[in-house]
């Protein structure tokens, strides 16, 4: 049978020291964030660096990549689906640095968990919301304080906070808040494809809805804030270092394609409903 016989031996895995060069990419991304934020960009970048170093230690570079790169695509012009593509590209670039700096024997074997899973889902959307501030933010905050509250705005803000809380509660394999219907849908999708994460499908679907319809700016900002949850989830997916890269990659690709398709269908539906409503 030509099968070699002998005693089993442990194969040593030593990460290449060249992976530390990925720090250059992470710091470059941090610099882009500092330049792209309209208010106190350098200070925010410095605080993120200190947070990553203090909280994650040896995994600081990987954590920093997961916090920074999901945000970069939101800092450019809102030029339709090109913004979605740009955001996806930045996220995948961050995946390269995350994987390079976070892959160690302990993390690949699942013996050491990635530090900062909750932060990767919480910080990027908050940074995206922070990027909505105007350069003359004091005047903007004054206008916001004096702005008369409307029931629709309050409801949308409450919905955004609820979805953010659900995203945090549903992280991990033993999430306490997972509806039975979603579990059945997960099982169905796993039988036909590499199942995407629902947070990513949801986030990608919101991009066409936010960018291709004539919303007021506050509505568009709210939709993009929620979309940032899905983009942050891309880096979160690849932070499961024990999962083969190919599996994570196809999860992200399937989530992007499925989410974009649903979003475009949603745009068509909203346009038809709007035309019907306006007569």
Automatic annotation (TrEMBL):
The chain crosses the membrane at residues 20-37, 43-69, 81-101, 113-133, 154-172, 223-242, 248-270. InterPro entries: DUF5693. Keywords: Membrane, Transmembrane, Transmembrane helix. Pfam families: DUF5693. It comes from the Bacteria. This is Uncharacterized protein. It comes from Thermus tengchongensis.
